[in-house]
């Protein structure tokens, strides 16, 4: 699993470390905040387009070959971004990295479901969560130090080095735990997946710069319509690109929605916070990165604890605890101003980073444990697709709210850009708090005994396969 762990770590490192570099990129390339956010949204757009195809690809291509291809894409993308002299080239390399991450993340969770027994799924996901959440621990801090000492290009050089390590580890150690059944390829599903997810995320992301222009409305309408066709086709053809039957299982669907909302909340806060430290509180990128470190360490430790505690306590109580902590942390962020002490930021950040992994890891373990192993690859892909697509949309919404808050401050007669940024950030924090409330609301519908549900679903699935074989 080492190559996959390193690859997943790199994917989240890339997803979370770029936020702190956005102000520098805006200054160097002369682009607006709405354009610069494509370094985050474009990355997640590439992930969202690739992810729905991964479950199907794993049925055709050996997992080891697929992972090596993914990390090669990441390596090439990192080199292109490091050498970019224009923003479009930089974004192109960034999106190529997203292709690699989109393949590695669901493959890791699908492999876990095939390697570990059901009684250890929670602990295994806890280890995976520790690996993935280690990236937000070191990402912003390391990125801030590299920007201060060298430049933002050093971040992409680091990505290239880690990608090379993942390629070596995968080639040396990884085996293929998923069998290839080679079902027929449905070309309309592939095209609908790319067009639907691409148009939806692109349309939402362009609202920040273009408002509800005819182009934006057209992209949103096309995205929703094509995705509706995509979902209908997956449920009616014999060999779907992505088996959406997993969403018919309530024990999977409810925690999957909770994971998606908590992930979108995480990305919204991680997009706003580093920028608020720099644009609102006037700190350097190096200092801002260092201030992100304590809460990142807490997040990684809580991710591991949440996975281990799930096997003992189940998801509901852990989600309630995590939701309460995250809400308190988000409320503390609302109190931060341009002259607030650093201690207030540290307290708010640590509290919210205690809560989020207890929500996210517990719900993710509950979702994956509820599925029969035959559906684990599709379930992992559905779960990761929902996270990345909704996460991209959530980041775009946070960007729009940030701009809306700044505009309201200016219209009201405000003239301090730092205070305007803080006011705008609060609009985004309210959005994050609303997502936390949604998670808590859905937690009331969680089934307490997920393992029994999984056993009954798997028994039914095997019974159908035996009848078909007979």
Name the overall outline: globular
Instruction: Give me the number of helical elements.
Output: 17
Order of helices and strands: HHHHHHHHHHHHHHHHH
CATH architecture of the largest domain: Up-down Bundle
Could you tell me the CATH topology label of the largest domain. Growth Hormone, Chain: A
What percentage of residues falls in helices of 4 or more residues? Answer: over 70%
Radius of gyration: 21 Å
Question: Mean pLDDT across all residues, rounded?
Answer: 81
Which structural category do the helix and sheet elements fall into?
mainly alpha
The tally of structural domains comes to: 2
Structure notes:
- The chain has 470 residues and is mostly helical.
- The protein has 2 domains: 406 residues, MFS general substrate transporter like domains (Growth Hormone, Chain: A, Up-down Bundle); 52 residues.
- It is built from 17 helices and no strands.
- The longest helix has 36 residues.
- About 3% of the residues have low confidence.
- It comes from Bifidobacterium simiarum.
Q: Which tags fit this structure?
A:
470 residues; mainly alpha; Growth Hormone, Chain: A; 17 helices; 82% helix; globular; EmrB-like; transmembrane; membrane; transport
Describe the secondary structure blueprint for this structure.
Blueprint: H1 2-17, H2 22-29, H3 33-36, H4 38-57, H5 63-82, H6 87-115, H7 121-149, H8 153-173, H9 187-210, H10 214-236, H11 250-280, H12 285-313, H13 316-334, H14 342-369, H15 376-411, H16 417-443, H17 450-469
Helix pairs in contact: 1-6, 1-7, 1-8, 4-6, 4-9, 4-15, 5-6, 5-8, 6-7, 6-15, 7-12, 7-14, 9-10, 9-15, 11-14, 11-15, 11-16, 12-14, 13-14, 13-16, 15-16
């Amino acid at each position: 699993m080492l190559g996959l762990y390193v690859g997943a770590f790199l994917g989240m490192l890339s997803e979370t470390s770029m936020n702190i570099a956005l102000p520098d990129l805006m200054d160097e390339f002369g682009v607006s905040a709405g354009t610069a956010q494509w370094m985050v949204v474009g990355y997640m757009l590439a992930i969202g387009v690739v992810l729905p195809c991964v479950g199907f690809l794993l049925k055709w291509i050996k997992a080891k070959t697929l992972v090596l291809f993914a990390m090669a894409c990441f390596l090439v993308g990192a080199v292109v971004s490091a050498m970019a002299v224009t923003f479009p080239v930089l974004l192109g390399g960034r999106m190529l990295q997203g292709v690699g991450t989109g393949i590695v993340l669901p493959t890791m969770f699908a492999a876990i479901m095939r390697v570990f027994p059901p009684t250890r799924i929670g602990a295994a996901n806890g280890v995976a969560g520790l690996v993935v959440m280690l990236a937000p621990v070191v990402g912003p801090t390391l990125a801030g130090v590299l920007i201060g000492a060298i430049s933002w290009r050093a971040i992409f050089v680091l990505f290239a080095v880690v990608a090379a390590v993942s390629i070596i580890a995968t080639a040396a150690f990884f085996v293929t735990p998923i069998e290839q059944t080679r079902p027929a390829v449905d070309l309309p599903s592939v095209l609908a997946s790319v067009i639907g997810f691409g148009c939806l995320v692109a349309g939402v992301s362009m609202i920040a710069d273009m408002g509800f222009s005819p182009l934006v409305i057209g992209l949103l309408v096309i995205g929703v319509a094509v995705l509706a066709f995509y979902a209908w086709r997956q449920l009616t053809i014999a060999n779907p690109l992505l088996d959406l039957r997993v969403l018919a299982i309530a024990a999977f669907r409810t925690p999957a929605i909770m994971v998606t909302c908590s992930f979108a909340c995480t990305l919204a806060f991680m997009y706003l916070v580093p920028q608020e430290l720099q644009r609102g509180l006037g700190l350097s990128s190096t200092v801002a990165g260092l201030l992100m470190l304590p809460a990142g360490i807490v997040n990684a430790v809580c991710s591991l604890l949440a996975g281990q505690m799930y096997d003992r306590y189940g998801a509901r109580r852990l989600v309630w605890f995590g939701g309460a902590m995250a809400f308190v942390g988000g409320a503390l962020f609302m109190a931060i101003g341009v002259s607030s002490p650093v201690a207030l930021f540290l307290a708010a950040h640590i509290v919210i980073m205690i809560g989020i992994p207890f929500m996210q890891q517990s719900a993710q373990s509950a979702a994956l444990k509820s599925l029969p192993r035959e559906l684990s690859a599709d379930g992992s892909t559905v779960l990761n697709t929902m996270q990345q697509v909704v996460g991209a949309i959530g980041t775009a919404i946070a960007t729009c709210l940030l701009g809306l808050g700044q505009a309201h401050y200016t219209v009201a007669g405000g003239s301090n850009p730092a205070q305007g940024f803080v006011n705008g950030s609060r609009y985004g924090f309210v959005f994050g708090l609303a997502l936390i409330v949604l998670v808590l609301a859905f937690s009331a519908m969680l089934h307490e005994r997920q393992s029994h549900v999984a056993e009954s679903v798997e028994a039914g699935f095997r019974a159908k396969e035996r009848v078909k074989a007979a």
